[in-house]
Amino acid sequence: MPVRLLAALVLGLEAVGILALAGWQVVALMGGDTDSVVSSLALIVLTVIGAAAIGAFAVATARDVSAGRSGGIVTQLLILSVAIGAVTGEWASATTALLIAAPAVVGLILLVLAVRAAAPRRRDDA
Fold first, then answer.
1. 3-state SS string over 28-73?
2. What's the whole-model pTM score?
3. In this structure, how many other beta carbons lie within 10 angstroms of the beta carbon of residue 47?
4. pLDDT digits (tens, 9 = 90+) for 57-111
5. Which residues of 52-75 are buried (b: 16+ CB within 10 A; e: fewer)?
6. Per residue in 7-20, pLDDT tens?
7. What whole-number distance in Å separates Cα of residue 6 and Cα of residue 40?
């Protein structure tokens, strides 16, 4: 299986995970577990938009489109920054950070390998 398809699979699973997060946000909104309905709705909309973008990166990566790989790499770096944030602060949790960082590291490695595989070969390399 080409590495780009594995990278696309990781991106697709991340998109599904973010959609699950949006569902969790909807449940919190319906349960009255929010301070501001307007802010909660805005956050839900942005979360769904983010999931759609990552899903689009997954499809583009599977089709071997450079923009999908680039967007996927940026996504993995953003996820890693969230993982770093989970290690710091008042409610720091190393376990949570590792659970967030592990798929991002795998995705980043696969995407970089997909970029290398898609790069044209120079004649003197052959």
1. HHHCCCCCCHHHHHHHHHHHHHHHHHHHHHHHHHHCCCHHHHHHHH
2. 0.89
3. 18
4. 999 999 999 999 999 999 999 999 999 999 998 889 999 999 999 999 999 999 9
5. eebbbbbebbbeebeebbebbbeb
6. 999 999 999 999 99
7. 34
As a whole number of angstroms, the distance between CA 87 and CA 105 comes to: 16
* Cα gap 57→51, rounded to integer Å: 10
- Taking the C-alpha atoms of residue 103 and residue 116, their distance in angstroms, rounded to an integer, is 20
As given in the structure block, the two tokens for residue 103 are: 């798929």
63: which 2 tokens? Answer: 């089709």
Report the alpha-carbon distance of residue 115 to residue 99 in Å, rounded: 25
Hunting for tokens 């990166």 — which residue is that? 57
- Report the C-alpha gap between 43 and 18 in whole angstroms: 12
With tokens 């956050």, the residue in question is 43
Helix axes 66-87, 94-118, angle to 10 degrees: 160
Nearest 10 degrees: CA dihedral of 77, 98, 14, 90?
Answer: -80
Instruction: Quote the DSSP letter at residue 91.
Output: T
